[in-house]
Amino acid sequence: MVIASIDLKDGHVVQLKNGKTLMLQRDDADALIVDFNTYGEVAVIDLDAALGNSDENGNTVNTPLLKSLLRKGNVRTGGGIRDVKRAKELISLGAEKVIIGSAAWKKDPEPGASVLNTEFLDELGKAVGKQRIIISVDSINGKIAVKGWTETIDVPLVEGAKQAEQYCSELLFTCVEKEGCMKGTDMRLVQNLRKAVKCRVVAAGGVSSVAEISNLEKLDCDVQLGMALYTGAVSLKDAFTACLNWDKVPLIPVIAQSVNGQVLMMGYASREAFEKTFETKKLTFWSRTRSTLWTKGESSGHFLQVIKLRADCDRDTVLATVIPHGGVCHTGSFTCFGSEPDELSSAGSLYDVIADRFANPRPGSYTATLDAKRVREKIEEEAGELCSEAESKEDIIWETADLFYFMNVLMYKEGVTWKDVYDELDKRHKK
Are 157 and 143 contacting, i.e. CB atoms less than 8 angstroms apart? Predict the structure, then answer.
């Protein structure tokens, strides 16, 4: 699959040729990550940090923008991560994985010794876990490139990769000579690398067509893509469809799941169905009964608004995260896997109901009458009752439900979402 890259330099989104020459510059990172995350993971790279243009804390002019992007998608990040503290900070701020470049390598390894900075990598693995670590095996003329691709060390690509995979869950290979040139990557090097290691391999540098992406997928390699996306040579929707395993199944099973995590339905999609899904942002399937395309909700109006799609590890099943507009099942139930007419209660669903009450107040709605002052008073009141009056299990449940409701109202009034709260808890857990 394709991992879209957002490279940051001097506070802008950029694309460089061979890591040096500026080819394009943009200032729409927020819009880019929303679009890119629809189709897969996103890599956010701080080029200034990779070049060493950072302060004593590892921060650069890009740091505020980088931090703002880390929780806006399934993000991996890299560029100048040289110590465990910095890596842990980025993970706590929302990065799913960190990409380690120069810090992973010894500058002048002794003959016969490890070419890796094993002391650092051991410490990093203990701190964040091997599964969160990606090691860059970038190369220039077949040698490992470091320091923002400004230097090489006397370590052949394949030899370095074999040692590196012991400390990470995947390798990111960039053919620096091809980077930004739009003339294809070095398939021979990619094939040699793929044969040499067992972990996940992501190829970058020069990939310029959907056909090349498909060929790399058949080699069991993902692609990190930059220039080809920004110039329009490759579209993510075409790349997504091309990477699915059509040789294994004629139709791809698609599981629809609400943004609050409830499984809603399963259907089958053809290439044309995916194309229409991407075009309309409404989940579309192939009807095996009628042998035609059908967009969920085209008759009832209960369509499924697509937020993102993710292929599974075998590329033969897709998970669609959606916002349902009405009940999903033809029986009238909210989900095809149950008989309830409404979404199951959860923090997210309660918040959504409260938001709707304020946006579309109904006659007699108590929620719509609450202002910020009153809801704070109610929180104090309910918290007091929970702590001083609730004695039985039933009392505690009752008072907790009251408190939880008013907390949700206050959160909505102040523009705080449950994602904000979960993100803060996640940050504390990963520190």
Answer: yes
Q: Please name every residue paired with 268 in a beta bridge, in sequence order, or none if there are none.
A: 253
Phi-psi category of residue 265: left, alpha or beta, with phi > 0 → left and psi -120 to 50 → alpha: beta
Exposed/middle/buried for residue 247 (C-beta within 10 Å: 0-12, 13-18, 19+): exposed
Q: What is the pLDDT of residue 303?
A: 95
Cα separation of 274 and 251, whole Å? 11
Torsion angle in degrees (nearest 10) through CA of 302, 306, 307, 312: 120
Residue 363: predicted pLDDT: 85
Q: CA separation (Å) from 185 to 3, 179, 218, 223, 365?
A: 16, 8, 15, 10, 61
226 touches 204 (CB < 8 A): yes
What pLDDT is attached to residue 344?
87
At 272, list the tokens. 């044309």
Residues 161 and 166: their CA atoms lie apart, in Å, by 9
Spatial distance between the Cα atoms of 234 and 182, rounded to a whole number of angstroms: 11
Specify the 3-state DSSP secondary structure of 7.
Answer: strand
DSSP string, 221-286: EEEEESHHHHTTSS-HHHHHHHHS-TTT-SSEEEEEEETTS-EEEEEEE-HHHHHHHHHHSB-EEE
- 259: Cβ–Cβ under 8 A, 6 or more apart, which residues? 307, 321, 322, 323, 348
Residues 6+ apart with CB under 8 A from 379: 403, 406, 407, 410
- Confidence at residue 342, expressed as pLDDT on a 0 to 100 scale: 85
**Which residues of the chain fall short of a pLDDT of 70?**
none
For residue 267, what are its two tokens?
A: 């259907």
The secondary structure of 125-136, three-state, reads HHHHCHHHEEEE
Q: What is the pLDDT of residue 54?
A: 85
Assess contact for 267 and 329: CB atoms under 8 A: no
In this prediction the pTM is 0.88
Determine the residue type at 243.
C
Taking a C-beta distance cutoff of 8 angstroms, is the pair 288, 268 a contact? yes
pLDDT digits (tens, 9 = 90+) for 180-214: 777 778 888 899 999 999 999 999 888 889 999 99
